[in-house]
Amino acid sequence: MNVSEFVKQRRKQVNMTQDEFARKAGVALTVVRKIEQGKTNVNMEKVNQVLAMFGHELAPVKFQNM
């Protein structure tokens, strides 16, 4: 499951609208919409604010040179 599906599914499980969820997470409504639509131009800090609502966070991935 990707981040957009996860957030949308979990938000619906707690029976919140996008607007209610955004306010509770402390982000703009547009941030929640972008995440749920799978947009790639969302600030990682904002994504983590949303994910923190469910006890999760994203971390940068380090690639090793091959």
Going by helix content, strand content and strand pairing, the class is: mainly alpha
* CATH H level, superfamily name: lambda repressor-like DNA-binding domains
**Shape descriptor:** globular
Main beta sheet: none
Indicate how many domains the architecture comprises: 1
Please mark out the parts with pLDDT under 50 across 5 or more consecutive residues, or reply none. none
Number of helices: 4
CATH topology: 434 Repressor (Amino-terminal Domain)
CATH architecture: Orthogonal Bundle
CA radius of gyration: 12 Å
Percent strand equals under 5%
The tally of beta strands, per DSSP, is 0
Mean pLDDT: 92
Query: What is the CATH domain class?
Result: Mainly Alpha
Please write the string of helix (H) and strand (E) elements. Answer: HHHH
Whole-Å distance between the termini?
28 Å
Percent of residues in helices? 40-55%
Question: What's a quick, concise take on this entry?
Answer:
With 66 residues, the protein is an all-alpha fold.
If you had to describe this structure to a student in words, what would you say it looks like?
The chain is mainly alpha-helical and 66 residues long. It has one domain: 434 Repressor (Amino-terminal Domain). Helices cover 55% and strands 0% of the residues. It is built from four helices and no strands. The longest helix is centred in the N-terminal third of the chain and has 11 residues. The radius of gyration is 12 Å and the shape is globular. The N and C termini lie far apart (28 Å). The model has no long low-confidence stretch (mean pLDDT 92).
